[in-house]
Specification:
alpha/beta; Rossmann fold; 11 strands; globular; Carboxylesterase type B domain-containing protein
Length: 347
């Protein structure tokens, strides 16, 4: 079902419906500016349920050109932003899903909230689910997560939901040994999206003591890695991992560096000096990099190396000398690990 379409069907003589009504606006306040969102309705004509939805909320400055392969920068403040449609998609490793509208200016998140006159706000605010989409680090978008399912399963039960985009494939996990290319920029994207939510929590009436971090497949790995950072761990009460964990063999591929160098060579870049790689890659349009990825034959892989671009352990993000030490030092929280069939179909 198209998320922006209105669908009606009969069940038990009550007309069920879902609708995203751009004509009925809702206003969400944040410390950076006001969000002009929309009213999303589920339920029946006799018993409709309305949710506040803000789509395509920019949480970071664009990552185009010189900002490619760098940690994201806070978005400037604004007076009012229209947040009625999903933001642009981040470039994937390859466009197997046939999506459009790829852009490096893709660091957006979506907010789904109850109306407090429909579901009274608890004393300390609404509990929050911060959910990271899947796609094995190389594909996907927050738009993959169905609005109707989010509203029915969470918002209608008094839970606020935040779903972020993050950079994918080489744009999110490129590796060189040069200072001008940051490691794990996708993790830094998610860290900034999370901090945007924390910064906005008082305005959005969110309960900072009841924040659950969750994800599916690669998103579950990123959720767990994100939770190991002190600044994040201090603000979450639980973790839900669906079909993935940072401890799974495929979570961190040993072949990312070699694949990164191969991509540079395929693009005609001199790889003798690592600093030149980062500089020259930033000079190319993203479309040129993506076209080269599309034209490159997939390598035959097995074992830990079957996913193209993955996160890697680095001390700047995690502080400690090893992943084992990082886990050992982490504050204890509730963790739920879920395995499913056909997890790629989870919406």
């Amino acid at each position: 079902m198209n998320s922006f379409a209105t669908s009606h069907f009969n069940r038990n003589k009550a007309e069920c419906m879902t609708s995203l009504d751009e004509n009925h606006e809702t206003l969400l306040e944040t410390p950076l500016g006001n969000l002009e969102g929309i009213n999303y309705t589920v339920g029946t004509l006799l018993e409709p349920f309305h949710a506040q939805v803000a789509l395509g909320v920019a949480y970071a400055y664009n990552t185009i050109g010189e900002f490619r392969f760098r940690r994201p920068i806070n978005v400037p403040s604004f007076s009012m932003a229209a947040t009625k449609r999903f933001g642009r998609h981040c470039f994937p490793y390859k466009n197997y899903a046939g999506l459009k509208d790829f852009n490096e200016d893709c660091l957006f998140l979506n907010i789904f909230m109850p109306f407090d006159d429909i579901i009274p706000m608890p004393k300390n605010g609404y509990p929050v689910l911060f959910f990271i989409h899947g796609g094995m680090f190389n594909y996907g978008t927050s738009e993959d997560l169905d609005i109707t399912a989010i509203v029915k399963n969470y918002v209608q039960r008094g839970i606020a939901v935040v779903t972020p985009n993050y950079r994918l494939g080489p744009f999110g996990f490129y590796q060189t040994r040069a200072r001008n290319v940051a490691y794990n920029v996708a993790l830094w994207d998610l860290e900034l999206a999370f901090q945007y939510m924390i910064l906005s929590s008082e305005y959005l009436q969110l309960d900072r003591t009841k924040i659950t971090l969750a994800g599916v497949d690669g998103g579950a790995v990123l959720a767990e890695l994100l939770s190991l950072r002190h600044e994040i761990r201090a603000n979450i009460s639980g973790l839900i991992l669906i079909g993935g964990s940072a401890l799974t063999p495929w979570a961190m591929s040993p072949g990312v560096y070699d694949l990164s160098i191969k991509l540079a060579k395929d693009l005609g870049i001199n790889t003798a000096d690592p600093m030149d790689i980062g500089h020259d890659l930033k000079m190319l349009p993203a479309s040129a990099i993506f076209e080269k990825l599309e034209a490159t034959k997939d390598l035959s892989k097995d074992g830990r190396d079957f996913i193209e671009y993955t996160p890697d352990f680095d001390r700047e993000f995690f502080y400690y000398s090893s992943l084992k030490k990082t886990f050992y030092e982490a504050r204890e929280i509730d963790i739920y690990i879920i395995t499913t069939r056909n997890e790629g179909s989870i919406r």
